[in-house]
Amino acid sequence: VPARQGHNDRRRGGVPNGHQGRAAAPIRENCSAFSPNHLAIVGSRRHWAVVDRAPLLHFTRRRSAQRAITVLRHYRMSKQCTIGYPKAVFRYYLTNSAAPRGYRLRGEHCASFSPVLLRLVRTRRGHWMLAEGRRYLFRFRYNRRDAIKALNVIQKYTFNHSCYVGHGRHVMRYLLQR
């Protein structure tokens, strides 16, 4: 039974998750495979890239790039998927076409959430967000379609932890199932 929309949800543009009476359409995913065992760090000074055959991630600190490789290998991530074109607004990683899972790494920065409680919310400024209660977790600016697709992906893989490596603009965000 879907959660009821509260007064505050309607005022701020809340949209219940799920579509009653319709089967969910298959999600077209934009994913690129990589080998976690062949990852390397290239760069110097304030620009470091994690590469397989091509650049995968960018950081301003070598330590963040090394930590990203540790995370990718620990969870055996082998696909990087994006939502949004031409610029990705949402990224997630898969392990053999499934949600990454495993024991928590020491020092990992993660926040838990419930995929079934996520809902699409439109802010007063017209931005689309995925929220759990009053907590905004993911933002999509003005692109509602990308926000809906991200919600469907999160629920498909039952992701329930949002994590990150890095600082500032150059951050690797990843989702886990625990």
UniProtKB/TrEMBL annotation:
<feature type="compositionally biased region" description="Basic and acidic residues">
    <location>
        <begin position="1"/>
        <end position="12"/>
    </location>
</feature>
<feature type="region of interest" description="Disordered">
    <location>
        <begin position="1"/>
        <end position="22"/>
    </location>
</feature>
<protein>
    <submittedName>
        <fullName>Uncharacterized protein</fullName>
    </submittedName>
</protein>
